[in-house]
Design a protein that fits this description.
The chain is of the alpha+beta class. It has helices spanning 3-9, 25-35, 55-74, 87-104, 131-134, 138-150, 165-172, 202-205, and strands spanning 47-52, 112-119, 153-155, 178-180, 184-188.
């Protein structure tokens, strides 16, 4: 793939994750190794990566995730309830809604669950602007997704588990100074192609010099 193709066809995969095929450990380690080249504020590199492959651990996380997802799907902000006044866009949103529910039922069966985490000095998140803090981790998480895509793996970007972050932390035995970010279910994907997703025209979102 060209860089442009990789960047425009790395999609969230929910329905097409292969739940039966094991993912080699070295493949995940390769993806994390690449992810660690992402920018990190002041070069602190305070990231920690937790990879869950144990069936019991995955099932426990899956149960917590399903609980969080059920509440989300009932909320007014759920994907399928957005853009109700735009039939074409809402049709897309309904498909997203259904695929979110599909993954929630199977999260605990996904072969690999990856949780990029932050180790925070002093053990407490700052009360002010946290953009720099999380901006030193999330680019690495996205680099993981790109590296996985290049190796025939699919990923899904989700943060619904954070509704019950403390429960997931207890399952994983996380120290008090380690905070979770995105959850990345990772597996080989069934299918052979991805294409760029519909997006707003650049002219509708781009501003030059002033709003």
């Amino acid at each position: 793939m060209t860089p442009d193709e990789l960047l425009t066809t790395t999609r969230t995969v929910r329905r097409r994750l292969d739940l039966e095929r094991p993912v080699p450990r070295e493949l995940i380690e390769d993806c994390v190794r690449i992810a660690l080249q992402a920018p990190s504020g002041s070069n602190r590199q305070t990231w920690q990566w937790l990879v869950v492959t144990d069936p019991d651990q995955r099932a426990a996380i899956g149960a917590v995730y399903k609980k969080a997802c059920e509440a989300y799907l009932e909320s007014q902000g759920a994907a399928g309830k957005l853009f109700a006044d735009d039939p074409e866009r809402n049709k897309v949103q309904r498909r997203v809604h259904d695929s979110v529910a599909y993954l929630a039922d199977r999260m605990g069966e996904v072969p690999v669950l990856v949780l990029p985490c932050l180790k925070v000095a002093g053990g407490r998140l700052p009360s002010g602007n946290q953009g720099g803090l999380w901006g030193s981790l999330l680019p690495a998480a996205w680099s993981f997704c790109l590296a996985a895509r290049d190796r025939g793996l699919g990923t899904a970007w989700t943060t619904l588990h954070l509704t019950y972050e403390s429960e997931v932390a207890e399952i994983l035995g996380l120290p008090d100074d380690v905070y979770q970010s995105v959850l990345l279910p990772t597996a080989y994907y069934t299918g052979d192609s991805f294409k760029p997703a519909p997006r707003q025209p650049v002219s509708e979102v781009l501003h030059w010099n002033r709003w």
